[in-house]
């Protein structure tokens, strides 16, 4: 049952503040070393192909390990799981910072991504519970704070590199900040999970309901893949669209990523207000239309400034995809975090495949814009179809 605004207690408000800080910090941590990857590559004496292989292998290992997240959360609860695995995430970050051989980078990235699987699910579960208790939802704004955290972490990393601060010292400072934030977060999180007294294996599972549950989980994984495709292609290839197709300078080409990120952040910070006014279904359909238009303009516009405008519009539309998916998955009945794990698995597998797919297409006779359009535009339609299908299956599974 959804609680009214009066029932949103001081404890709930403190918990929401803790979750908000964790979203911001989580985004900042992962952005803290990405801008310094060239420095890591040089220190380890790796080629670009070798660096890519190490990071891909780390991502794959982290994804496999994170599949245990629901069992961990089911055993110890979201609060304890988050606290413990933030500490594990911190250890992985320090391994990356001190890596002087390739296998240490592989280990550090795998540990970070495995730990993030638990942390990400735990903070989204608590965020979804608290959002449903309020008079107004907050999931879009929480994910907006994650986006702001990536911007802050990336800017801090770039400034540290420009100032000559060593990577090791930089990540030690990031780790100290993370520990300080964890004290605030850990003391404020909800101590009792929703549905904590209900055991997954005790739930009645008729054959038809079980079948519908599996269908919904598969559709959630597919939706995660489609959503990540449009987001990942836009962030990673916006600069190449401007540099390769228009011959833009490095400085101007970088504005493609900035334009998309601005659109994403604005869309997430304002998404909850739109959700209240138009409802979840209309917001989803409107976001897909907006994202499709923005992606088409970004891919085919003959003018650099129109391309930038397209990326801003696409960012606004795409911004609400993952907040909705995470909220839907968090509310899915059964073991806490199971649906979120399927969602992350779908997006995680996609993250391993999409960069290669775009690269192959871009190396053909196609322009970068056409290569990105081949992947992103069908995915917007696919995202709509599987989202509608998963909602229908979820309703039948609950019946």
Could you walk me through the main structural features you see in this protein, from its secondary elements to its overall organization?
The protein has 399 residues and is mainly alpha-helical. It has two domains: 1-197, MFS general substrate transporter like domains (Growth Hormone, Chain: A), CATH 1.20.1250; 203-399, MFS general substrate transporter like domains (Growth Hormone, Chain: A, Up-down Bundle). Helices cover 82% and strands 0% of the residues. The protein contains 16 helices and no strands. The protein has helices at residues 10-31, 37-44, 48-66, 69-76, 78-98, 102-133, 139-162, 167-188, 207-246, 250-253, 255-278, 280-300, 304-318, 321-330, 338-363, 368-398. Helix 3 (48-66) packs across helix 6 (102-133) and helix 3 (48-66) runs antiparallel to helix 15 (338-363). The longest helix is centred in the middle third of the chain and has 40 residues, at 207-246. The model is unreliable at 1-6 and 200-204 (pLDDT under 50).
Topology of helices and strands:
Layout: H1 10-31, H2 37-44, H3 48-66, H4 69-76, H5 78-98, H6 102-133, H7 139-162, H8 167-188, H9 207-246, H10 250-253, H11 255-278, H12 280-300, H13 304-318, H14 321-330, H15 338-363, H16 368-398
Quick tags:
globular; Growth Hormone, Chain: A; 399 residues; mainly alpha; single chain; 0% strand
Radius of gyration: 21 Å
Helix content: over 70%
Strand elements, count? 0
Secondary-structure arrangement, i.e. CATH architecture of the largest domain:
Up-down Bundle
CATH class of the largest domain: Mainly Alpha
Instruction: Give the N-terminus to C-terminus distance in angstroms.
Output: 16 Å
CATH names the topology of the largest domain as: Growth Hormone, Chain: A
